[in-house]
Amino acid sequence: MSPCTEIEEVEQEEISSPLEKEVSRRSFLAVSGVISAGIAVGLPRTLIAEEPHGVAGGPHMMDVTLSINKQARQVSIDTRTTLLDLLRENLDLTGSKKGCDHGQCGACTVLVDGRRVNSCLTLAVTAQGAEITTIEGLGTPGSLSAVQAAFLEHDGFQCGYCTPGQICSATALMEEVKRGELSAVSFETGATARPAITDHEIKERMSGNICRCGAYPNIVAAVRALAGGAA
Ligand code: FES
Ligand code: FES
Questions:
Q1: Sheet holding 71-78: strands in order across?
Q2: Which of 12, 35, 103, 163 fits 121 for a cystine, CB–CB 3.0-4.6 Å?
């Protein structure tokens, strides 16, 4: 038997009983705990990771005034608040929906100075000085906007969850059509000036709004009817 083998056998023998193994495990944990505590207490401040900016002192509150649906709204908010959360949680404007909260579904689409934005990706404080329009500001049950009426006429919804975002998006789309703005499809098809609003164009321009019910054919029909009148 080599000296090495002899040592290994002695070590295995030394902790071979269950009681000894348990004692050995506890000793290890106790030593680890002491070392961890030592590190936490003893490390110089500069070696401890800095806390993320703004978190250590709590939320950074700010007084802002936003123009929403032509009304001035004054709120004191955490600067990290998204426009979507402000609308829904602080101002009770729950028409804008939270689908993904990641800029992927379009359910939260609102208009900022007439342009569509994902309000879940927009910090509320950055919208100061702009005119914000939500679905609540586009029409009323007794006086629908043209886009709302077209969606109703063409059955452009099923469960309705994506519909406020779809309608805000289509509203901005109509303004883009009036201005003769181009889309990726316009360039693909070589239509570089006032492109005809074909179904291909509509699908491209509405592609930021997902409908889990699959109401797309009727949404396209509603926008086609509107664009036909505007072209
Ligand atoms: S909730 Fe904003 S894009 Fe989905
Ligand atoms: S109508 Fe249900 S998600 Fe679009």
A1: 71-78, 61-68, 131-133, 109-112, 115-118
A2: 103
